[in-house]
Write a structure and sequence with these properties.
The protein has 97 residues and is an alpha+beta fold. The chain has 4 helices and 2 strands; from the N terminus they run βαααβα. It has a two-stranded antiparallel ribbon with strand order 1-2. The model has no long low-confidence stretch (mean pLDDT 85).
Length: 97
Amino acid sequence: MAIIKVVKAGKTKSSLKAALNYIANEEKIITPTGKKLMTSLNCWGSLKNIYDTMIATKELYRKAIDNRNSEMYKHFQQSFKPNEITPEKAHEIGKKW
């Protein structure tokens, strides 16, 4: 059974960039068989392009404010017991969620 929690709710552009770098760390997203498990929604290409797209969307809706009262993003984490499911299945569940 999965546990899903908010790991971080970032409030600045720099924290968004740091979160994207953490999330896209190849040690976390590459399976032992070499398959890359990372999916984005309405963003594509390089990590820089994904960041730029997210910031442009925030600016379009006047939400790109670096301050303590406005959240820039939320980072969720899903966890499973060891060997409960495969990395591919965890990725599939994350995409559906």
